[in-house]
Write a structure and sequence with these properties.
It comes from Lysobacter korlensis. Helices cover 21% and strands 36% of the residues. It has helices at 24-33, 49-54, 63-68, 140-157, 178-182, 189-194; strands at 4-10, 38-48, 74-83, 86-94, 98-105, 115-122, 128-135, 164-169, 187-188, 211-216, 219-225, 240-245. Helix 4 links the parallel strand 7 (128-135) and strand 8. The N and C termini lie close together (6 Å).
């Protein structure tokens, strides 16, 4: 099984942390610079007619297609939130072929849409890698229910021997949901390599451990939070990067 790089980033709809400036082209350049094989994206827009009218450099296609360009030939998108002008959700960009994918709606009625994007990828040696891109709710009671659904997905639909990456924005600022994920047989990349979960929010002065990269059947060789420029000005979350091997 090859060594590969995993990046997770909350794209913040393509705007800077104060929602004043459209920075998606700069975010694309930054993502390209780290050599990630798998990119887990949260809050990426599939369409937004109002923003498309206001910003002359708005991409003609979807934001995730714009970010993928020719670097990541394979991508999947899961729509989580729909509104009059468009929709947004989670996306996965991959240098490895995506064999199939499915988006699980884990939204709580009356609150912002959330989802689990589950994809199965084919690695160069023919091994199937499972990847789940996560964006959970802001309320702890909602996250507990959503983590139960994640645990059910892992237990019921992903073979125990299959390598697995679960990454994204868990919004678990009290770290109370961490144990629920560990009980699924996963370990966290930063906890393994650095001794503690990464601080990723807010991007300029990260203090809260909201974003995670969990692994099963894999190990992290290196992990870092990307907190310096340009990352600190491209989203409200600092991205996480990990080098992963069997």
């Amino acid at each position: 099984m090859p060594t590969f790089n995993v990046l997770t980033v909350n794209a913040h709809m393509g705007f800077d942390l104060l929602n004043r400036r459209f920075v998606l082209p700069e975010l694309r350049d930054a993502i390209r610079s780290v050599g990630a094989d798998l990119v887990f994206l949260q809050e990426v827009m599939g369409a937004n007619a109002r923003h498309a009218r206001r910003h002359p450099n708005w991409p003609q296609g979807t934001q995730y297609q714009f970010l993928a360009d020719e670097i990541w030939p394979h991508h999947a998108y899961g729509r989580n939130a729909v509104y009059p002008d468009g929709h947004h959700g989670n996306a996965l960009l991959s240098t490895f072929p995506i064999l199939r994918y499915d988006n699980r709606d884990v939204s709580i009625d009356g609150h912002e849409g959330r989802g689990l994007l589950h994809a199965v990828l084919e690695l160069p040696d023919g091994v199937e890698l499972h990847a789940v891109c996560v964006h959970l709710g802001l309320r702890e009671s909602h996250r507990q229910r959503q983590l139960d659904l994640l645990a059910r997905l892992v237990h019921d639909e992903i073979p125990a021997e299959a390598p697995l990456v679960v990454a994204g924005d868990f919004n678990d600022w009290r770290v109370r949901g961490h144990g629920q994920v560990l009980r699924c047989g996963l370990h966290e990349a930063f906890e393994q390599t650095c001794g503690s979960l990464a601080r990723s929010f807010p991007a300029r002065y990260p203090t809260l451990r909201l974003d995670r990269i969990y692994l099963r059947g894999l190990r992290a060789e290196h992990a870092e939070a990307l907190c310096s420029r340009p990352w600190s000005h491209l989203s409200d979350h600092a991205p996480l990067l990990a080098r992963v091997a069997a």
